Amino acid sequence: MSERKRIYVAYAGGTIGMKATETGYAPVPGHLAEQIRDRPQLHMGEIPELSICEYEPLLDSANARPADWLRIARDLAQHRHHYDGFVVLHGTDTMAYTASALAFLLRGLGKPVVVTGSQIPLGVLRSDGRQNLLTSLLVAARDDVREVCLVFGSHILRGCRAVKASASGFEAFTSPNLPPLGKAGVQIEVDESRLRLPEPAAVGLPMTLDAPVNLLRLYPGMPASLLRAALAEPTRGLILEAYGAGTVSAADPELLAALAEGAARGVVVGVVSQCVDGRVDLSAYATSAPLLEAGAVGGLDMTTEAAYAKLVVLLSEGRTPDEIRSLFAQDLAGELTPAA
Ligand code: ASP
Which is the closest atom of ligand 1 to the Cα of 59? Predict the structure, then answer.
């Protein structure tokens, strides 16, 4: 008989372990562990053995910062030789950012990392938390998964491709530019052909994760002062959510001047699309030309969340702007589909 797998469960916060308070749901220390302990279904023979580590403080993920991503990555990396897989329990609001960041930070971990949470706390009768946790534990126990996944409802998604698409549905996440890695229905089905192949085992984490990166969504009539502020000291990176294939208001001389100033300061500008589906191609329209002139790089079909996390990680690794520009457009963790 094969040995029962051991899964490390890091509870970082989020609705799954929250309780109702006077001001609304908030995480309460000890509550999640109690809920898990009192549910016999979570400890049955076919479910892997789990150890829970509750973080202090527990966060509503709206309060998460890049330093919190690094904390999770460090924790998992430190335990990598003692567990078969990892589950990160996290709030849904910024889960896609954290899952993306973990995918970049934990390249080479070689074990499954599953990020999940719930829309209703585990302690509430109609909670989706029990199912999400069970599916996550089973995915985290698989030998063929060696990447960061986001499991929610029936979806098993690549973490760095996921976006939160619903504030209230139980199927809260999708991955617009990549089919799901699998589906949790009567059976848990993972399409092995979609999984990442093993990478050389080595995890090198940056000392800190605090590179100043901004995120700006372009809109018709946006004053150039906003872009100028987004590129000003101490900014080192900017993710610009441009239109369609990566177009900007190229007829606005102030906007072009702001871009040129940012470029002169060496700010790395990554361009993603406001469209949920499709990809950035900065060579398609003349209205993208000022971006190319300013050294901006197209993020292809990356989500905004993945692009932001990627730029923060790359800048925190102490690389040169040119190196970062080149890596930004390369596939590092399955976050983008390279040009054919
Ligand atoms: N505000 C909560 C959080 O992101 C929402 C959730 O967990 O679903 O922590």
Answer: 9
Within 235-298, residue ranges assigned H as helices are 253-264, 289-293
Q: Which atom of ligand 1 is nearest to the CA of 15?
A: 7
What's the rounded Cα separation, in Å, for the pair 309 and 313? 6
Asked if residues 305 and 313 have their Cβ atoms less than 8 Å apart, the reply is no
Query: In a 10 Å sphere around its CB, with 0-12 CB exposed, 13-18 middle and 19+ buried, how is residue 148 labelled?
Result: buried
- Backbone φ and ψ for 213, nearest 5 degrees, come out as -120, 135
Q: Known catalytic residue: 15?
A: yes
Q: What is the pTM of this model?
A: 0.97
CA 193 to CA 287: how far, in whole Å? 38
Q: Is the CB of 17 under 6 A from ligand 1?
A: no
Q: Is the CB of 117 under 6 A from ligand 1?
A: yes
Show the tokens assigned to 90: 């996290």
Report pLDDT digits (tens) over 219-271: 999 999 999 999 999 999 999 999 999 999 999 999 999 999 999 999 999 99
Whether omega before 234 lies within 30 degrees of 0, making that bond cis, reads: yes
Angle at 323 between CA 320 and CA 327, to 5 degrees: 135
